[in-house]
Amino acid sequence: MTTPLMPLALMAALANEKTLVPRVRMAIAVVAQEVFLENANTPGNPLRFSLARSVLSPTDLQAAAMMVGLVASPLFQDAAMTASSTDPTAMAAAVTDAQLLDAVRAGWDAVAGVSPAQATGARETPAET
Fold this sequence. Notes:
By secondary structure, the protein is an all-alpha fold. The chain has eight helices and no strands. It has helices at 8-15, 21-36, 45-54, 60-72, 74-80, 88-94, 97-112, 116-119.
């Protein structure tokens, strides 16, 4: 089990930081374009491609929906915690574009519905009941 790096209340404030939404929208669009260029044999490609197609021009609502998972990710939290403040605006500004893109890339499979086994190319077997 992973313990969040920051308190839940601070995560919630950061997930609602209005200055971050436009950057998240652009990061989603950039990663969607990257997914379109992937080899069709990339593990999880059908689901990854489907997500990319559905968020190619992400709305504020789609970006806001992804913000919760994004802010909960250790990559994003590590970046935001480099700010010498707990002010959500300052924390959002501390996240570089590269860090934001890496966090979106890291969460793409989960949002697309690609299981960890699928992401590594392993074949999943149905669980016995």
